[in-house]
Amino acid sequence: GKKLQWLRRMCVVSDSCSWPTILLLILMILLIVLGLLRLSEPNQTQILNESILQKLQGWMDGFRLSESSPFINSTAATDVEKSQQYDSKSMALFEEEMDTSPMVSSLLSTLANYSNLPTGSKEHEEAENNEEGPRPSKKPLGTLMGVYLPCIQNIFGVILFLRMTWMVGIGGVFGSFIIVFMCCSTTMLTAISMSAIATNGVVPAGGSYYMISRSLGPEFGGAVGICFYLGTTFAGAMYILGCIEILLIYIFPQAAIFKLEGLEGAEAEIALLNNMRVYGTIVLSLMALVVFVGVKYVNKLALVFLACVIFSILAVYAGVINTAFEPPTFPVCLLGNRTLMSKGYDVCAKVIEIDNETVTTKLWSSFCDSDSLNATCDEYFTNNNVTEIQGIPGVTSGILAENLFGYYLEKGMFLEKRGLLSNVDPDSPTTNSNRYVLADITSFFTLLVGIYFPSVTGIMAGSNRSGDLRDAQKSIPIGTIAAITTTSTVYMSCVILFGACIEGVVLRDKFGEGVNGNLVIGTLAWPSPWVIVFGSFFSTCGAGLQSLTGAPRLLQAISRDGIIPFLRVFGHGKANGEPTWALLLTASICEIGIIIASLDSVAPILSMFFLMCYMFVNLACALQTLLRTPNWRPRFKFYHWALSFLGMSLCLSLMFICSWYYAIVAMGIATCIYKYIEFCGAEKEWGDGIRGISLSAARFALMRLEEGPPHTKNWRPQILVLMSMDATQNVEQPRLLSLTNQLKAGKGLTIVGTTVQGTFLSNYTDAQRADQSLRKLMETEKVKGFSQVVISSNLRDGTSHLIQVGGLGGLKHNTVMVSWPCNWKQPEYYQQFRNFIEVVRETTLASLALLVPKNISSYPSNGERFTEGHIDVWWIVHDGGMLMLLPFLLRQHKVWRKCKMRIFTVAQMDDNSIQMKKDLIMFLYHLRLDAVVEVVEMLDNDISAYTYEKTLVMEQRSQILKQMHLTKNEMEREVQLIHNKNASTPTSPTSPTPPAEPPAGGAAAWTDSKGADKGRTLSPAAPAEAGKDLFSMRPNQVDLRRMHTAVRLNDVITKKSKEAKLVLLNMPGPPKNRVGDENYMEFLEVLTEGLNRVLLVRGGGREVITIYS
Length: 1109
Prior knowledge:
The protein is α/β, with parallel strands linked by helices and 1109 residues long. The radius of gyration is 43 Å and the shape is elongated. 44% of the residues are buried.
C-alpha cells in the first residue's frame, strides 16, 4: 500500500498517470529485483576440460603470445604419442619428420577441441567460481544473445534520452537527419570492415585493439588501443554524468548540495556543475567498488539494464502513437514569443477573474514591483501578451513543417517560438532574464555532431565476445550489422517523430524548464514520463558499470602484450586476474571527465577517440584487401576496399567536424604513443599489413632505382663492411662499426658481412652464431643496416662473393671498408695480405670506392668526443672527390664535430704553388666546404742511402717469402701424390690464381717490364744457391723510385699531420700482376709510417661531389 501511495504521489507530480503506468513501473521494479536475485544463484560458466588444457597448453601459449602457427613445432603430443602416431607401416616414410610435422588426424582433433577464452570478465568469473567446484558447462552463445543484444545495449545510451530532442530542436529535422545519417553510415561502414577482419580467423578478446594491432602492427595497435581505452573510459564518465543529471534534475532535485534557488546565470551554472562533480565522484567510487568486488554482479544485471532501455524506447513509440488520438497535456506559457520558466508562474496569465474581481497572478509579481494593477512592470511584459500553447501537439498537428530547419542559439539567448511576433524595443535593456528559458550553451552544427556521435558507438561489443560465440565468424557480421540497422532505424525515426510531435520551443528546452521540469522525451512517452526517467537512469548506470568493467581489461590486454613498457605494471591484478591497477588508473582518468562535469563537453572528447579507432579499423581492412596477402581470406564477402576508404574518410572528416582542436590533440596523443613504441622497439611479428606495405614500397623503390645510377648530388657512401671473426665467431675489430656509424650517421645503406670457412651443411650453426654476433654489435654501435654471412670453402672466395652479390637490385653498396692487415709481415699471415690485395683489385675492377682504416683499434668510439684537433686531407690525385666528402660526413657526427678540416696538396717543380692554392680555395668555396688550404712543395732530391737500403731489404724479403711459400706448396703436393687421395683444405688456402715465378732482382713487381733473369726459379733442391743470389742482387729501379716517393711523402705528411686526429690520403692502385704483392704492402707501410690514425681512400672512378645545386 505504501509503495502504491508513493507511485500515486509521483503521478501527481507528472500530471499524467494511470493504472497502466503503475503496472509498468511495478514491472520494472520486479525486473530489478529478479536481477538482484540472480546474484545469489550459482554461476553457470564454461569449464574447460583439464585434459584438453594439458594437451593444448604448449602451442596455445605460443599462439596467444606470438600468433605462430600450431601446425609446426607443436608440443601438443608427447614422444610416446608421436611414436604411436607413426606406428603404422603406411606412415613409416614420414617417421623422420615426426618431431616437426604432426599427423593430420591428430592435428584436426586438436583444433576441434580448441576453445578460445576471451581476455575479459568471463575467465575472472570462472576463477572466482572454480573455488566452489566444477559447474556444468555453459552453452555457447548464438547471434541474438551473443552479438545482437549486447550491441543494442551498448549503442543505445544516455544521448538518446537526454540530448536527442534538444538536437532536433536546434538542428532541425533536416540537419539532425543528416547528422544521424552521417554517423550511422560511419558505423555501418566500420562494421563491414570489422566483419571482414573478424571473420579472417579467430579473434580473441580485445576487440578493435586486437584487430588493429594484428593488422597494422604493434605501433598502430598500441596507439589506437590506448585511444580506444581512453574513449571507453571517458564514455564511463559521460554515462555517470548523465546518471547524475537525471537524478538531480528530474528525480530528486532536493538532493542538490549546492542549492540553485535564487541563483542566476553563471552562478547557477557553477552550482549545477559543482553538484555534478560531487555526486559524480561519489557514484564513480561506488561503481569502481562494485567492479572491484566482483565483475559477475555487473554481468548479471546487464539483462535488467537492457530491458530498461528497450521498455523506454517502446514507451516513446507508444507515446507517439498515442498523440495521434489523445495528445498529452503539457502546456507551455509564452510571453510574446519567449518561453517562460514553469516555476515562475502558477497560472499562464497576467491577471485572473475571481468573484468578478481582477487579481494579479504570480507571473505578474515576477515582472512588476508589486501585486497591484497600477504597479510598474517590465516593458516587455507590458507590451506583450501571455499565451499558452500545447507542448505536445501530436503527430497529426503539422508541427513538422515548423521544425524542419535549424534554430541555432547563442548562449543566453531566449527560446522563442517561430512564427509568433513580439513587441520588443531593440534599444531597451533586457531585464528579468531569469524568468525565461535561456540557451545554456552556444550551439552550432559541428557541436551537435560531436555530442551525438557517442550514441552510435558500441559496435565492438559482439567482437569482444568472440570466445563465447557458437560460430563467431557467422554471428559477428550478422549480429553487428543487424544491431546497427536497428539502432539507425530507431534514431532516424526518432528524429522525424520528435519533429512531428513536439513543439519547437519544447525541443530546444534542454532541461525541460518550460514543462514543469520534466524530461522532454519523457513528455512524449506513454503512459508516463517516469517510465523514461527511471529507464534512462538505470540504463546509464548499467552503461557506466560496463565501461568501468571493459576499459581496465582492455588496458590489461595492452599491458600484457608488452608493446608499451611503462604500462606493464597495469597487466597485473588480483589472484583471479582482476585488473586492480588498471581499474585504479581507469577510475582516475574517469574522474577527469567528472571534473569537467558537462555532458556536452565530455561527449566530443570520447567522439575523437572512438572515431580514430574506427578510422584505423577501416584502414586495416582496406590495406589487407589491397595488399592481397595470402592469409587474407575472410568468410564475410560483402566488403570492398572502396567502402573501407569511404568509412575511413568519414571518420577523419567527422573528427575535424566535431572539433578540430580535439582532433589534433587526439592525433597528437596517438602519434606520441606510436613514436614511443617505435623508439622502444616493439619486437612483435604479427603478420601486420604495415609490413606488407613496407615490402610493396621496398619493391617499388628498388624497381625505380634500377632505372639508372644516382645523380652526383644524391651520392653517399653505401658501405659494405668486411669483418673478420675469431674461432668462436666473435668480431675481432668492433671499431670498424664505430667508424661506420660516425661516417653514416644512420643514413644510407650499410651491409656488415663476414665469411665462415667450411661447407653449408657442416658450418650452418657457426654462420648463425656469427650473424648473431654481427647483429648484437650493430645494435651496440647503433649501426642501422643489414648483416650478411657467407659460408665458403676458403675466405678469399667468400669475401669475393660478398663484394659481388651484396645488396639487392639498385640498392647495392658502392663502397667497401676493410681493415688494414696489421701482421702481414709475419709468414703465418701471408694469405691474409694476399686476400687484402685481392679485395683492392676486385673493388677497382667493380668501380667501387675503398676505405682502409689503419690502426683501427686507436679510432674513437661513439662515446668519445674530440674537443679540438684537425682532420687532415692529403689530396695527391683526384679520385672523384671522395677525400673531400668523407671529412664533411665525419664532422656531422658528434665525435668529430669540433675538429677542423685541413687540405694539403702536393706541388711539383713545374707547378705554380701560389696559383694552385688560389684555385683550391675557390674550388672549396664552390663546394661549400670550410677548410684550411696548404700547398706542399716536393723538390726532386736525390735518392737517399736509406731509401736504397730499404728497397733492397724489401726485395730480398719478398724473394725469401716466395721461396718459403713455394717450398711449402711443393711439399704438400708430394704428400698428396704419395697418399693418392684427397687431402683436406689447407689451413691457409692459396690465392685462386697460382703465383707466377718471380723474376730475378724483383723486377716487374708493379710493371710489365721483363728482367734478364725471368724464368729462373728457386727450387727447394738448391737453397744455398738461392741464398747467394738474394744477397748479390741489386734493387730494381722502378721499385727504387716508388720507395723514394713513399719515403718523401711520409716525411712531409709526418711533419705536417703528426698531431692530426685523422689523416686521409689517396691509396695507390694495386699491382697489375700478382708478382711482388709484398712490395705493394711495403710501399703502403712506408707511406703511412709514424701516423696514428690513417684512412686510405681509393675512389670508385666517378664524381661523388659537385659544385652545382
